[in-house]
Design brief:
Layout (H helix, E strand, L loop, with lengths): L1 H70 L3 E3 L3 E3 L11 H19 L7 H31 L8 H31 L10 H17 L37 E6 L2 E11 L5 E11 L2 E11 L6 E13 L2 H7 L19 H42 L11 H15 L2 H28 L12 H29 L8 E4 L6 E6 L11 E14 L2 E13 L6 E13 L5 H8 L10
Antiparallel strand pairs: 1-2, 3-4, 4-5, 5-6, 6-7, 8-9, 9-10, 10-11, 11-12
Helix pairs in contact: 1-2, 1-3, 1-4, 3-4, 4-5, 7-8, 7-9, 7-10, 9-10
Length: 594
Amino acid sequence: MKLLGARIDAWAARLSLVLLLTAGGAAQTSRQAADLADADRVIEGLRQTTRDLNEAVKHFHSDLDVAVARYDRGYRAAGVRLVPGADSDLAGGTADVILEATRKLAAFRMLAARNEKYEPPPVVDMDGIQHLVAEAHQRVADSASVLRRLLVVSVKDFDPRRDAEAKARHDHLLKERAATEEAAKQAWLALPIDLPEPDSSEESSQKAWDLLSRGWSNGARTAQSAPAPSSAQAPVAGKAAAVAIPIRIEKRRRVTLVSALSYRMAVTDSGIEDADGRSLFYQEEWIQRGISVIRMRWRVAVDTATGEHILVKRYPAIELRGELDDVYRSIDRYSLWYLEPPDETDRSSPEKVEVALSDLGDARAAVRAAVDEFQNATRASLARHDRDRLAAGMPLLDAGLAPPIRESLYAIRAHLGGVRTDLDAETNVWQSLGAGERAVAELESVASWANRVTEAQIGAAAEWEGLLARSEKEIDLFRATEIEAAAALPPNSSQAEARFPALQRGVIVRIRRPTQQNALKGLILCRQEIWHMENSMPGMREVRRTATLVAVDPQSGSQTVIGGKTKYYPVDAGGLLEQIFDQYAAEDLPIPSI
């Protein structure tokens, strides 16, 4: 009996173990089944979103083509006068590029001009596409957790059949996820967004998607409740900004809608309406032709009452030498064709423009004269200083450097030392620049009336076109003079220490006022360091760091060296002066007094 009882207990224990193992296996099977079911649901959701995106883009393009055919082909106005369509002059690119440009320009204008009374079908389509893009982004993000679960398999519960099934679902999910992401990219590119500079169409697609993803991760899902950015909030040059959903058109900011090989198309929402209540836009087409870039410009408008997209004014084409990528990036400032006449001023006339042109020419000449006077005074003062030092048997300041560099350093120290005669000469230059800015503003005010003169005004249009071109040229000349004048002056900085731009290749200058100025009463001390790349011997290079302590007399303007020290730093092959400067500039180099 005891033996039978022991056997019964063993059977019971074994049965319990089998039941536990069965239950565990059932639980594992249930989890795997749930993961597979979740994967199927995610796959179907991704597949449906992909279909919806592709269908939405097709519908958008169809509605857009209908709208363009109806409202962007021009019409006959009163008196049988043909009013051309906004994009009637586009002809610089291939057929597919022109089609893309026409679609995107029309979409951009519709979106920017949208109001409570003007909401054409393509605008509604764009809302739907943006919603689907956001949905696609969310589905792609949410699929990551399912992908991870499909890869997790318990070692003790490993089943080759189930593992193969999970792997097949995993691969299928990856495929559908990639298809959805690609559909979202193409849908996003179909919208009138600001395109990054690409090297290929694939790069353009990926960059646009990356920017959207960055904007999404920064809170784009709540973008509808966020305030619209002001026109002053432009992205930093050379750095692409993250984008968000929904698309918001920034006023007075150039947007690159088409970026293809040797071709650019851009548009700017002026943010204003003309006298007829039409929304104004500035369009530009850039085409590389040989060694030149042709730039075409138009003012176009959207009449929200009739839905018509019309060409308001053509501007003469401009030919610029260079590569398209370089030229396009360098010309991003507003010019006269962007401007509207101030409403508070009287109507301009060609005679007023001629007067303003003459005044700006005089202002430019005055700036040059002031710069010449400043430079001549600096040159004369340095020459006098050199004569005095030579007569006293003393070495020259900054000996061994080129004369223009010596003059620049002398002027910088005089500025930091507060030498009155030098400061007066500088002030004269800055005042002449201020007068020139006022002359530019006056010319812009009177010349911008040319933008109101249309081609229909025979005779006047040609005269105003010439005045506008001359005005833009004169303003460009003044800007170039302004840059030259600023470069000729010491940096207008109130800081006690400044690192100045390179005065020549392979030279870095740093000048500061030491904190203790009591050693020499009445004098201003300037600590000057010159870092210079030198070839000490064939195949070897080193950087020479020359530190000099100069005392400046604000009253007489004399500059006296009261201490100096030189140190050398070896440079490895391929090493740069800037690297050595950044590495050792923080090291103190004590200057013994003479």
